[in-house]
Amino acid sequence: MPRQAIHSDSAPKAIGPYSQAVRAGNTLYLSGQIPLDPATGALVGGDIAAQATRVFDNLQAVLAAGGATFDDVVRVAIYMTDLGHFGAVNEVMARYFHAPYPARSTIGVAALPKGVAVEVDVIAVTAG
Prior knowledge:
alpha+beta; 27% strand; CATH 3.30.1330.40; six-stranded mixed β-sheet
């Protein structure tokens, strides 16, 4: 099955040898997004809610470039350096998704790229 790299200028450029997303058939695999401002490449400051909002906005831009929306997302993986932020990140996520919600894992990790507190990746399945 051929793979197609997906790119959005409205999301941060990859900071390594990977694509923002890859489409394989009707499935879109998005790389993890961290709270980087796509216009400046700088980390977004503020509390965890502000950072998570930037992460989900970045994901939304990549989904759109792949012809998808959050309604097409079937799987979410959230990585956090402090699981004490679980509730705040849930509140942000709830602004982007509605029932039926995608499957999800939340994983506590020791560190994330650039020292950020949260990273999220998703898998979406589109109609065509």
